[in-house]
């Protein structure tokens, strides 16, 4: 028996009435009823109500005790009266009558309340994260995270995967985000990099003859924070498989995610066999490669309709002639929506830095017409063609925008979400997964106009490898894929390029010569020359998986010790200044900008 407790604060039940017990925990709440003082004692497992009457010599001391003080109470389990039973907690049928108590840990005045989930500033929450983590909601989120990771490990073992650890100190990569660099004392002037992902190492594990690898891997990227991305570090389920095609990877990941989401959430999965959406189709229909399939709205390209002579909407017609495109969103049965709804969407679009969104409603008197500010510019025949092309009916409305393709994708994707939210079309009680596939191998850099890899440079291109047209690199598709849930990208993956000669050719398209490839990827390219199996994998983000399961909008709420938006740990004061002795030992001198 522990000297601190006979039971935890979630264990005692009606059958324990009459038992002498001692419990330890934090004073969560106090309620003074004059002759009786009620104390909610909290530990990791739950809450037990304890009571002490005024005749007890400890009453006045406990009455003045600061909340969150850690105490041990010695007492007896008693029945609650029927009218005072608390059905919200598992110990709600009993309470503990305190005989005596000991203070185990004193508490200063609190900078924030613990017994409520009231929102506080990020600075306060992160500076006192150890207090923030005591609060019920986030405490449960962190426990959920632990259980999800344990479940995933068990599922991966069932699927025949073995867990291996890869190095934390490695070499810098020329692709991807910025590296975190670590100076080497034993090799002055040289630096390690913290891994952005175990990408090269997990491929080397396959080359080493291990068939199925996984790891709960820490990854480090010097990126700005977002709601779904922590600055600095994050964790992913990293996995790789030998002798597989794309569908083999999909089958494994689908089994894992279906089992995980069914086990930890009551929300319904729309489909257990996830839809496969080609990248090009995704960008057209949803304006993004991270589509939220809970949203039923679809984007249509109607550029060719604006070539008609009987459309007099000259602003768009002139833009189309200059190479712009027109895309639209149809909303079903919205003819009775007030004018403020339509004008609100147009105003919102202008606030996003665009020229707005034109709109009208498909209506019919003796013949079809467009009811709305720009409807008069469209002939009956043009409107009928739009209805056929978009599947619209009388009573539906159309919102449309015109711009260069990339800019148009951005605004229509945002508009699709905005309109769906305003019309309350998104079911918050479902998970809608999909695969986005057939990514282009290369893309053109917006600023430099040079060809660069669009995704993972180690991916296998699609098609007959002997007939690839490297003169048209933007036409080459890759066996690259993303898995998306409710508009959140969980991971990117690929079937890997295991053929060295092909890798040199692909890197040359992106501007790397053979020597640069040999230098930057020496371990990888050398290993592939010694018999590499076809292999592929993926790395779903654990933080994002738990965020979805916990129904949180910000990844900070499922991360135990996150940094703030400026990549600072306010609790531990990191990053911190380094003393001259340490810098001298590393052969480093600082030249700071004023």
Task: Fill in the keyword field for this structure.
594 residues, alpha+beta, 8-stranded mixed sheet, 27% helix
Short description:
Helices cover 27% and strands 24% of the residues.
Show unreliable segments: none
Q: Gap between N and C termini, in Å? A: 61 Å
Q: Can you list the strand order of the major beta sheet?
A: 6-9-10-24-23-22-19-12
Largest beta-sheet characterization: 8 strands, mixed
Number of strands: 24
What share of residues are in beta strands? Answer: 15-25%
Structural class, from helix and strand content? alpha+beta
Instruction: Calculate the mean pLDDT score and round it.
Output: 94
Shape: globular
Radius of gyration equals: 30 Å
Number of helices: 16
- Which percent range fits the helix content? 25-40%
Question: Can you walk through the features of this model?
Answer:
The chain is of the alpha+beta class and 594 residues long. It has 16 helices and 24 strands. The protein has helices at 59-63, 122-127, 129-132, 136-158, 199-207, 246-264, 279-285, 314-321, 339-351, 380-390, 405-422, 500-509, 514-520, 522-528, 542-549, 580-586, and strands spanning 20-32, 36-42, 47-53, 70-79, 94-105, 162-163, 181-183, 191-193, 212-221, 232-242, 268-269, 276-278, 299-301, 325-331, 358-364, 368-371, 397-403, 430-431, 433-437, 442-444, 451-453, 480-485, 488-495, 535-538. The protein has an 8-stranded mixed sheet, sandwiched between helices. A hairpin with a 3-residue loop joins strand 1 (20-32) and strand 2. It is globular and about 95 Å long. It starts with 19 loop residues before the first strand and ends in an 8-residue tail after the last helix. The relative contact order is 0.11. The model has no long low-confidence stretch (mean pLDDT 94).
């Amino acid at each position: 028996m522990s000297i601190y407790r006979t039971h935890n604060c979630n264990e005692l039940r009606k059958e324990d009435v009459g038992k002498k017990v001692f419990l330890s925990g934090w004073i969560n709440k106090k309620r003074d009823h004059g002759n009786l003082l009620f104390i909610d004692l909290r530990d990791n497992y739950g809450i037990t109500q304890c009571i002490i009457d005024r005749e007890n010599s400890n009453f006045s001391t406990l009455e003045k005790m600061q909340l969150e003080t850690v105490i041990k109470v010695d007492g007896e389990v008693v029945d609650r009266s029927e009218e005072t039973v608390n059905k919200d907690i598992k110990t709600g049928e009993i309470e503990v009558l305190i005989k005596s108590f000991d203070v185990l840990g004193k508490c200063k005045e609190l900078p924030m309340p613990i017994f409520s989930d009231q929102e506080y500033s990020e600075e306060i929450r992160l500076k006192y994260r150890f207090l923030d983590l005591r609060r019920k909601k986030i405490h449960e989120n962190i426990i959920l995270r632990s259980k999800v990771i344990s479940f995933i490990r068990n599922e991966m073992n069932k699927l025949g995967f073995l867990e291996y650890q890869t190095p934390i100190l490695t070499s810098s990569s020329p692709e991807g985000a910025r590296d975190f660099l670590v100076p080497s004392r034993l090799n002055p002037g040289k630096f390690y990099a913290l891994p952005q992902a175990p990408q090269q190492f997990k491929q080397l594990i396959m080359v080493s003859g291990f068939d199925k690898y996984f790891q709960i891997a820490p990854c480090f990227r010097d990126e700005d924070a977002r709601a779904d991305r922590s600055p600095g570090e994050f964790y992913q389920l990293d996995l790789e498989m030998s002798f597989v095609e794309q569908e083999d990877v999909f089958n494994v990941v689908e089994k894992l995610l279906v089992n995980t989401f069914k086990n930890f959430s009551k929300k319904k999965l729309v489909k257990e066999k996830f839809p496969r959406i080609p990248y090009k189709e995704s960008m057209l229909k949803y304006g993004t490669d991270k589509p939220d399939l809970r949203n039923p709205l679809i984007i249509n390209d109607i550029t060719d309709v604006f070539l008609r002579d009987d459309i007099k909407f000259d602003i768009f017609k002139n833009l189309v002639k200059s190479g712009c495109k027109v895309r639209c969103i149809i909303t079903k049965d919205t003819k009775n929506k007030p004018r403020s709804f339509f004008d609100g969407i147009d105003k919102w679009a202008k606030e996003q830095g665009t020229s707005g969104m034109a709109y009208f409603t498909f209506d019919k008197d003796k013949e079809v017409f467009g009811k709305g500010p720009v409807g008069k510019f469209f002939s009956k025949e043009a409107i009928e063609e739009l209805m056929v092309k978009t599947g619209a009916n009388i009573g539906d409305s159309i919102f449309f925008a015109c711009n260069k393709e990339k800019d148009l994708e951005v605004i229509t994707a945002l508009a699709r979400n905005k309109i769906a939210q305003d019309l309350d079309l998104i079911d918050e009680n479902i998970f809608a997964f999909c695969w986005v596939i057939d990514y282009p191998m290369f893309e053109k850099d917006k600023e430099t106009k040079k060809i660069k890899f669009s995704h993972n440079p180690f991916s296998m291109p699609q098609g007959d490898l002997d007939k690839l047209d490297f003169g048209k690199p933007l036409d080459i598709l890759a066996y690259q894929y993303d898995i998306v849930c409710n508009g959140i990208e969980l991971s990117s993956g690929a079937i890997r390029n295991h053929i060295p000669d092909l890798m040199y050719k692909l890197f040359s398209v992106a501007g790397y010569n053979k020597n640069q490839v040999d230098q930057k990827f020496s371990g990888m390219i050398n290993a592939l020359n010694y018999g590499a199996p076809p292999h592929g994998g993926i790395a779903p983000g654990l933080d994002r998986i738990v965020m979805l399961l916990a129904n949180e909008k910000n990844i900070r709420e499922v991360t135990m010790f996150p940094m703030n938006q400026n990549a600072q740990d306010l609790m531990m004061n990191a990053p911190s200044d380094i003393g001259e002795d340490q810098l001298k030992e590393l052969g480093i001198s600082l030249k700071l900008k004023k």
